[in-house]
Design a protein that fits this description.
single chain, 344 residues, seven-stranded mixed beta sheet, six-stranded mixed beta sheet
């Protein structure tokens, strides 16, 4: 039988040899062990403070708020409520600081979970955690933005089963595995991993990393874009960041962001923190650069990290939002413990 005759009479396609399952382009396999450069200092978008900067900070003594600035603590927004039920849409609950409970694609995801009352170098929390640990559903995955103590909290991670999926910046995997976690995935900027019905893309941020005296910029830092692959809903979690060009680039690569979780606090004194912490007005501009439909503020009302009055971030954010003539209902200024759901 000739090759032409064989093609004519065959009624079913020939069986293909088994092929290994490969992830989509740009998607890494979960749990992959990888080798990274010794330093990520070349990713910095601004130089880190030097000796002169630290000397000025010590001389001015303006890194903590005054007693008057702390007088607003009783008025910080705290209104915990039951977690919304898992539905066919995406829900977010603010637990405080940069910790969110995100339910999407059939998963429960925690961002930068810090359930501890105190972190290294700061006073105790100004407000309690917005979600009791015992009220959490089983946690499927955790995303970490970087290794600073107010975002990577060992006591909280110890509460998790060691087979919980941890999605972390490049260079942080070994730290996690040494603490017993068996499903750790490290990503570089613009890389992704998929789990269940959610795609997790690691994206740049204007920040840095350090956990000890000897590991400055030894691991990467960034934010995350979570996409529900069934509904197409997309949430950008910025982690910890200053304002800069990366927001427009993220918006270009991920059009149609439904919700941007953006930091608005820990910005004073400005000369010291401008490069690594956005202020409220810059957060609004970042929201515009991203092209997001909605914004929810975070990284305020929880820990005393800087000198601004504790209620000022939200006041300035609302004023900047109004000046930009943005829809009032698109600003999800949740209290700690509050939840919202994206339209189905």
């Amino acid at each position: 039988m000739t090759e032409q005759t064989e093609r004519t009479v065959r009624t079913t396609p020939p069986a293909r040899p088994a092929q290994p399952v490969r992830p989509a382009p740009g998607v890494r396999p979960p749990g992959e062990h990888r080798t990274w450069p010794r330093s990520f200092a070349d990713r910095l978008t601004a130089p880190l403070p030097g000796v002169r900067g630290f000397a000025r900070l010590a001389r001015e003594g303006a890194f903590r708020p005054t007693a008057e600035a702390l007088s607003g603590i009783p008025d910080l927004p705290f209104a915990p409520e039951p977690l919304p039920p898992a539905t066919g849409t995406v829900t977010v609950t603010w637990a405080g600081h940069a910790s969110w409970v995100i339910r999407a694609g059939g998963l429960t995801v925690l961002t930068d979970p810090v359930w501890s009352r105190r972190i290294l170098g700061t006073p105790a929390r100004m407000t309690p955690v917005g979600v009791r640990w015992e009220d959490l559903p089983p946690v499927d995955a955790v995303v970490i933005s970087h290794n600073h103590y107010d975002h990577l909290d060992v006591p909280t991670l110890r509460r998790l089963p060691r087979d919980t999926h941890l999605f972390v910046p490049a260079g942080l995997g070994r730290w996690c595995r040494r603490r017993g976690f068996t499903r750790v995935t490290e990503l570089d900027w613009w890389e992704a991993v998929e789990l269940g019905g959610v795609r997790f893309d690691f994206v740049p941020a204007h920040h840095w990393s350090k956990r000890t005296l000897f590991d400055t910029c030894r691991s990467l830092w960034g934010g995350w874009v979570l996409t529900d692959t069934c509904t197409g809903h997309r949430v950008h979690f910025a982690g910890d960041t200053g304002y800069g060009h990366w927001f427009a680039e993220i918006g270009r690569r991920f059009p149609g962001i439904d919700l941007a979780l953006l930091p608005i606090g820990a910005y004073a004194p400005r000369w010291w923190l401008r490069d690594v912490h956005a202020d409220p007005e810059e957060a609004v501009q970042a929201h515009l650069d991203l092209g997001a439909a909605r914004m929810a503020p975070m990284h305020w009302a929880t820990f005393v990290l800087s000198a601004e009055p504790v209620l000022e971030p939200l006041t300035r954010l609302r004023a900047a939002w109004a000046r930009a003539e943005l829809p009032p209902d698109a600003l999800w200024d949740l209290p700690i413990g509050g939840s919202r759901a994206l339209p189905a």
